[in-house]
Amino acid sequence: RIYTLCEELRQIKGTKKQSIDEWLLSRVHHHVRAINHALKEYDLRELASITYFTLYDDLRWYVRRGGSDTKVLHEVLDIWVKLMNPITPHLSEELNELGKYVKVLVSASSWPISEEKKIAPKAEAGEELVKATRESMRNVLKLAKIDVPKKYTLFIADRWLYKLFEIISTEIKVTHNLGEIMRRVLAEETLKEKGKDISRIVPALVKDESKIPPVVISPEEEFKVMKEAAGMLEKEFGCIVEVVLGEESSHPKARTAMPGKVGIVVE
Fold first, then answer.
1. Are residues 253 and 129 in contact, defined by beta-carbon separation less than 8 angstroms?
2. How far is 92 from 107, CA to CA, in rounded Å?
3. For 122-166, what is each residue's pLDDT tens digit?
4. How far, in Å, CA of 143 to CA of 109, rounded?
């Protein structure tokens, strides 16, 4: 499967930069960091798990999402063949011969080192939003009992909610006292007028922290990554997928969108 995937990746030729490219580089350097940490304890199982399964899945997702940057793929495959070398040296060298990612024998090349500046939590958070949205779209379709959808509308949350989530995600690391968190939220001038909504949302978030994304990105970043993913989602669901900023819509479903969770309407 890995050999077949590498042959497929060799056919991709392009220079267009997308959010998915930043995500892939972030994931790879994240993995290299984890592997190098594991190898200090001689944990070859972690090396194998990430190299042969997690990285494979990441590259399959990159292709599905329409990633097409040859330079990014060359960098990633250069690292991947090196990570394979301790366990499957022959496969590693054969894959390198396919694309000439490393100019010498892989076994004679330098071991990968994580480039921390390429680890981008926001890019990874954006892609988690795409994956969660894809799953939610399936669930909504099932609940609506629609066999063949004509259109999906995806709503990005109102801007003020991102400020609210940023404050709560910071404060909740210090205290779980609802009163203290509410005081801190309402001290923010731009949030005072949203008091009624805040009194409903904040207790729910404090009670269930899983509703707060690990990384809160901006509405612009969410909108950009969902617009880029719309083509993939249209192919998968066989219908039009429109991405709309919640503030620009009066649809009730637009009010259900939260940072890290889009509102969804299917027709």
1. no
2. 9
3. 999 999 999 999 999 999 999 999 999 999 999 999 999 999 999
4. 53
